[in-house]
DNA sequence: CCAAAAGTGTTTGCTCTACACCCATGG
DNA sequence: CCATGGGTGTAGAGCAAACACTTTTGG
C-alpha cells in the first residue's frame, strides 16, 4: 500500500493593470523542493509539449496546519499585509500525482492587494490575466475556474472586494474592483447605497486628492458581520 | 518526518420520528479496521471519561477517490438509493490524530432518506437527534455544527430537502422536512408556489391516500438546474 | 356527514432598478 | 474657469409576505 501525499494549492488573485490576475509558477520549480521529489508532474493539457504552469503550492509539513501551509505557499509573493485566504475544495482523485505517490491537494483561494506584492512579481512565475492563461498542469485549470466562480459568488453577497485594495480606498476604487471581477458595469448610486448598507466598511476622516474632487476614503470594519443574508427560498 | 494520514468523515443526516438525526459510531470501532491502527483516539471533550462517539469515517485508500471513500463510509448504513453526498471542508490542524501519525480529515455531508436505511439502524452506532448529541471525539462536534449550517443554508437557496424523502413524496411531506431542518413553520401556499417555481421537482400522475384528501406525489427532475440564484448584492 | 389533510389567489408592502445633475478640487 | 472624477435622491416595477376558505377522500 503506497502512501498518499498532501499539499496545498493556492489560487492567488490580484488586480493589476485593470485585470484580474492569477499567480502561476513554472511546473518544475516548486516541486523540486518537495521531499518526495517531483510528484506533480505535468500530465497532458499543455498545447505543444512545452512547459506547463502550475498553481503555487506547498507540501503540508507534519507540524503545520493546512491554513499555515497555504500562507507559506503565498508568503514569498506577498508583502506586509496578510492575504485573505479561504479554503476552497480538496481534490483527491486517484489519478492525481505521479510515480512518487498519489497526491491529495487542498485548494485555497487568496485575495491579495496589488500594493502588497513583492515588487516586480515573484522571482519565478508570473501574474497571468484570467483570460489569457497559459497551458496548465493537471487539473489546475479547473481549480482556477472554480475559484473564480466562488470569488464572483462571494462578491454578490459580501463585500469581499476590499481585500484586493489597500487598507484605505475610495468607493470608486472599490466599485472598479467589482466591475473587473464581475465583468460588468455597475450603477454608481446603487453600488454605494448597498455597499454602505451592508455595513462592512466605514468612512475615515481622510480624503484622497487626485484628478477632480477628492474622494473620501473608507476602510474595513473588522467587527462587522461578514456576510449578507442570501435570498431565502422560504420565509 | 512522519507521514500524514488521510481519512474521510461523513456527517450523515436523516429524518426519523420528526427529528433531524446524525449517524454516529462508537469511537473505537471503525478505527480498529484502519491499517495504521488507532489513529483517531478520543482527546477530551467527553463528559465522564466514558466512550465518546465519532462521525463515521474511513481511511482513504490509494486507489479510491475521496468521493468514493465517503460513499464507502456510509455504504453499510444505506440501502438502495445512493445518498446525496457533498464535500464540506478539510480539517487538518497539526493537533489532529494521535501517536500513529497526524490525520487530515476530508469531511462530507450526506442526506439519506429514512426508507433507505438498513432496518433498525447500523449494527453498531446509532442515529442521534441533533439536539441531544452524546460526547463527541476530537473536533467532530464542530464538524457537525458546520454541516448543519451548510444544510440549512442549502435549503434556503435550493430544493435539496427532497434528498431526505423517498423517490415520490407529497408537497406536505417536503414542507414538513423543511420545517424540521429549519426549525420554523413555513407558509403552505408560499412554500408550494416557490418550490414549484424553482422547477426542480415535478408532479407524477400518482397520488397517495391516507387520512384526508389524497396528496399528489412529486419527484425530482434530474435534468433540473440545481440552484436558485442567490440575492445579488449588486445588479 | 364528519374529520382530516390537500389544494388554491389576491392584496399589500418592500426592495430592487433605472436614471441625471450638482459639487469640490487642481491646473 | 474648465476639466475631472466625487457625490447624491426618487419614482416605478417586480417580488415577497401575509392571509382563509374550498375540495377530496375515508370512516
Describe this structure in words.
The structure is a homodimer of 235-residue chains. Chain A has 235 residues and is an alpha+beta fold. Helices cover 23% and strands 29% of the residues of chain A. Chain A has five helices and eleven strands. Chain A has helices at 28-32, 66-74, 140-157, 171-182, 188-198; strands spanning 4-16, 19-26, 53-54, 57-59, 84-91, 97-98, 101-111, 126-129, 169-170, 201-208, 215-220. In chain A, the strands form two sheets. In chain A, strands 1, 2, 3, 4, 5, 6, 7 and 8 form an eight-stranded mixed beta sheet that branches. In chain A, β10 and β11 (215-220) form a beta hairpin. The longest helix of chain A is centred in the middle third of the chain and has 18 residues, at 140-157. The first copy, chain A, is elongated, with a radius of gyration of 19 Å. The N and C termini of chain A lie far apart (52 Å). The model of chain A is unreliable at 29-48 and 226-235 (pLDDT under 50). The interface between A and B is large, with 45 and 45 residues. Chain A binds a DNA duplex (27 and 27 nucleotides) through residues 170-172, 187-190, 192, 194, 209-216, 231-232, 235.
Amino acid at each position: 500500500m503506497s502512501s498518499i501525499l498532501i499539499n496545498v494549492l493556492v489560487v492567488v488573485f490580484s488586480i493589476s493593470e485593470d485585470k484580474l490576475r492569477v499567480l502561476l509558477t513554472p511546473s518544475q520549480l516548486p516541486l523540486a523542493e518537495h521531499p518526495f521529489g517531483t510528484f506533480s508532474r505535468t500530465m497532458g493539457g499543455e498545447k505543444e509539449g512545452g512547459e506547463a504552469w502550475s498553481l503555487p503550492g506547498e507540501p503540508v509539513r507534519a507540524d503545520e496546519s493546512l491554513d499555515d501551509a497555504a500562507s507559506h505557499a503565498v508568503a514569498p509573493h506577498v508583502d506586509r499585509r496578510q492575504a485573505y485566504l479561504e479554503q476552497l475544495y480538496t481534490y483527491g482523485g486517484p489519478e492525481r500525482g505521479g510515480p512518487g505517490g498519489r497526491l491529495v491537494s487542498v485548494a485555497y483561494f487568496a485575495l491579495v492587494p496589488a500594493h502588497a506584492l513583492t515588487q516586480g512579481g515573484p522571482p519565478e512565475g508570473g501574474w497571468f490575466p484570467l483570460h489569457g492563461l497559459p497551458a496548465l498542469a493537471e487539473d489546475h485549470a479547473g481549480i482556477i475556474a472554480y475559484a473564480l466562480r466562488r470569488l464572483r459568488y462571494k462578491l454578490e453577497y459580501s463585500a469581499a472586494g476590499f481585500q484586493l485594495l489597500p487598507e484605505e480606498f475610495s468607493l470608486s476604487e472599490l466599485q472598479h474592483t467589482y466591475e473587473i471581477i464581475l465583468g460588468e458595469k455597475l450603477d454608481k448610486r446603487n453600488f454605494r447605497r448597498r455597499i454602505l448598507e451592508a455595513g462592512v466598511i466605514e468612512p475615515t476622516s481622510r480624503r484622497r486628492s487626485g484628478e477632480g474632487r477628492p474622494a473620501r476614503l473608507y476602510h474595513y470594519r473588522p467587527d462587522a458581520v461578514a456576510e449578507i443574508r442570501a435570498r431565502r427560498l422560504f420565509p
